[in-house]
Amino acid sequence: MRVTLNEDETQLVASVERLLDGEYGFDRHRRTAETGGGFDHGFWRVMADQGWMAACLPESAGGYGQSPNDALLILERCGAALVVEPLLSGFVVPAMALATANGGGHGGGEAGPVAIWLPRMLAGDAVAALAWTEPGRRYDPRPRQVTASRGPDGGWVLEGRKSAVLSAPLAAVLIVSAATDAGTALFAVPGDAAGMTLAGHEMIDGQRAADIVFDAVALADEALLARPGAGSDAVLAAALDWGAAGAAAEAVGSMAAAVALTVEYARTRSQFGRSLSGFQVIQHRLAALATEVEYARALLPLLADRLTAAPEVRRAAVSAARSAITAAARRVTADTVQLHGGIGVTNEAEVSHHFRRVAALDLGWGGAREHLARYRTAPSRYAALSSG
């Protein structure tokens, strides 16, 4: 396992930071989140033109990512910059579902969902969403509320509800999990499908989500992305592992930025005639926070390496790293808010938005407790963290 960046990765990071530093300041984050509907179509296209989408996918899926580390590096920088545009939930996770389905012999061939939607997503012409969360079924990927049955004239009919589907209000296509008599199936549902109703809402970090009702939504056979059974389960598991891993990378970027903001605040804020950074207790707290950030960041190369491992090893490694990073990010961002004092909880304070981003990532992709419990029951938990 390699823990340092190669030349290509270094150049990728530099190009991402250069764009974000020049075009995506805190003011733009607030403007997009509060008055721009949580999405800037122009910036989404810029991200695609810069190759960020393609760097998140391997060549076999139409991208040019050398390894999963490319995606995690980009997501980490997006977390640090508080990018509202949903690169993780609106591209990476649904794109991985499409790519995994295609690699597993699903996807519908030349007329199927992969051929139709993945090129549009890579070009920045379409946002997608993975609709898997259901009311009363917290973090359980097995669909129960949404069912799919054969229509009287062929095709499929969807009925039921999904809740808090990230990026759904922005999506041109939704990858929907549904229960069938033969097991879980995945469908590519156009965002304007007849019979589908979305109730959009804003998440705590400014990103958008929606509750969805499927009322006799009729789909053609070509909408079937992954056939009922183990194949769909594998596709969904891979996509959700990528979601948890990407959220961990974003959390590392956000917590690192929160610490940097707090260090600067301590240097400029005076108390009792001296800067806060001059007090030893503040120095110790800042040093402890920086240590937490470096520990969390050190887990990302392991995470990237295991994302291409066997499913059971990938699952255990994702949960191990995710639980550690999530717990650290919640502690660090809470402490940075506290060190800012009363201003740290205001909407005008950038550090408060990092606290919100980490909280949203926790809620959306499973927190430390959920992933620690999953790791403890994983048969391959020891192999997942082995360096061999």
Automatic annotation (TrEMBL):
Residue span(s) of domain Acyl-CoA oxidase/dehydrogenase middle: 129-216
Names of required cofactors: FAD
Location of the Acyl-CoA dehydrogenase/oxidase C-terminal domain: 234-369
EC number of the protein: 1.-.-.-
Keyword Oxidoreductase recorded: yes
Gene Ontology molecular function: oxidoreductase activity
InterPro entries attached to this UniProt entry: Acyl-CoA_Oxase/DH_mid-dom, Acyl-CoA_Oxase/DH_mid-dom_sf, AcylCo_DH-like_C, AcylCo_DH/oxidase_C, AcylCoA_DH/ox_N, AcylCoA_DH/ox_N_sf, AcylCoA_DH/oxidase_NM_dom_sf
KW Repressor (keyword) present: no
Alphabetical keyword list: FAD, Flavoprotein, Oxidoreductase
Family: Belongs to the acyl-CoA dehydrogenase family.
Protein name: Acyl-CoA dehydrogenase family protein
Organism: Tistrella arctica
